[in-house]
Design brief:
The protein is an alpha+beta fold. Helix 1 packs across helix 3 and helix 4 runs antiparallel to helix 5. The chain has 5 helices and 8 strands; from the N terminus they run H-E-E-E-E-H-H-H-E-H-E-E-E. The strands form 3 sheets. A 4-stranded antiparallel sheet has the order 4-1-7-6, covered by helices on one side. Strand 6 and strand 7 form a beta hairpin. It starts with 10 loop residues before the first helix and ends with a strand.
Length: 226
C-alpha cells in the first residue's frame, strides 16, 4: 500500500503521481528534506547554514507565545539524490495536484520550478507525481511519533536526545543515525532530513526501517528550540 493511497485526489492526479519512468525508488540513496516552521538550509563548501522562524518572545525562554495558531507541521522541501539538474523545462500551470500545497514548504511558482528542475527532474517522476509523493511523505512523517512530538512541543526548548529518541519509537534501534536535525544559529530547528534507500511506504509501514541509511550530519546543539 503506497503513501499515495492516503490521498484523496482526482484520478488524473493519481495517474500522474505513479508516473515512475526509469530510476525513482530504486536509486541507491535519497535525502528527504523537511522544513519546520518555514526553516531552510543552504549548503556551501561543505558547511550548512540555516535560517528559522524568529523568536516571538525573548522573555519566554525559547517558547513561542502564539497559542491561537494551529500547530505547525513538517513540510516537504525536496526528495533529492546526488544527481541534479536533469531537466530545466518549464512546469505546466497544472503541475501541482489539488490538496498537495499545504504539505509543501513553499508553493510559489518560482520555488516549485527551482525544486523540480534541480531535484524532481532526476527522480523519475512526472512533475505532478514528484510533488504529490513528497507531500504524501511529509504528511506521513507528521503522523509518526517524531511528527507528533514536534507538534506537541512546538515553541519549546527540548534536548536533542529527546528528538532522537522520538525517532527510535518510529523505527528501530540505530535508526536515529539516519535522521539529521539542522538548526539556525540561535538553536531553532530549521530542517529534518531522512536518508533513504527506498521511499516506497517508508513512513506507513514502520518495519521498513531497514531502508533508512545511517548518515552523519546535523548541526544542532544539545538543546533545540522547536
Amino acid at each position: 500500500m503506497s503513501t499515495l493511497s492516503h490521498w484523496r485526489i482526482r484520478p488524473a492526479a493519481l495517474v500522474a503521481a505513479i508516473g515512475l519512468v526509469s530510476i525513482g525508488a530504486h536509486a541507491q540513496s535519497w535525502t528527504l528534506a523537511l522544513s519546520w516552521k518555514a526553516g531552510s538550509c543552504d549548503e556551501n563548501n561543505g558547511s550548512t547554514a540555516c535560517i528559522a522562524q524568529a523568536a516571538k518572545s525573548a522573555a519566554s525562554g525559547g517558547a513561542d507565545a502564539d497559542a491561537g495558531a494551529p500547530p505547525p507541521m513538517l513540510k516537504a522541501i525536496a526528495l533529492r539524490a546526488d544527481r541534479v539538474d536533469c531537466d530545466a523545462t518549464a512546469l505546466a500551470a497544472d503541475s501541482l495536484p489539488t490538496g498537495v500545497e499545504r504539505y509543501l514548504s513553499s508553493a510559489s511558482r518560482n520555488s516549485l520550478q527551482q525544486r523540480w528542475s534541480h531535484y524532481g527532474s532526476c527522480s523519475g517522476y512526472t512533475p505532478a507525481g514528484y510533488f504529490t509523493e513528497i507531500a504524501a511523505m511529509a504528511r506521513a512523517v507528521g503522523r509518526t511519533n517524531l511528527g507528533q512530538y514536534l507538534a506537541q512541543h512546538a515553541g519549546k526548548r527540548v534536548p536533542l536526545d529527546e528528538l532522537k529518541d522520538a525517532q527510535l519509537h518510529d523505527f528501530f534501534f540505530g535508526a536515529d543515525k539516519a535522521i539529521q536535525f539542522y538548526c539556525a544559529p540561535d538553536g531553532r530547528l530549521a530542517e529534518v532530513r531522512y536518508t533513504l534507500r527506498d521511499w516506497s511506504d517508508m513512513f506507513v509501514y514502520r518495519d521498513r526501517g531497514s531502508l533508512l541509511v545511517p548518515t552523519p550530519g546535523g548541526n544542532c546543539g544539545d538543546e533545540v528550540i522547536l
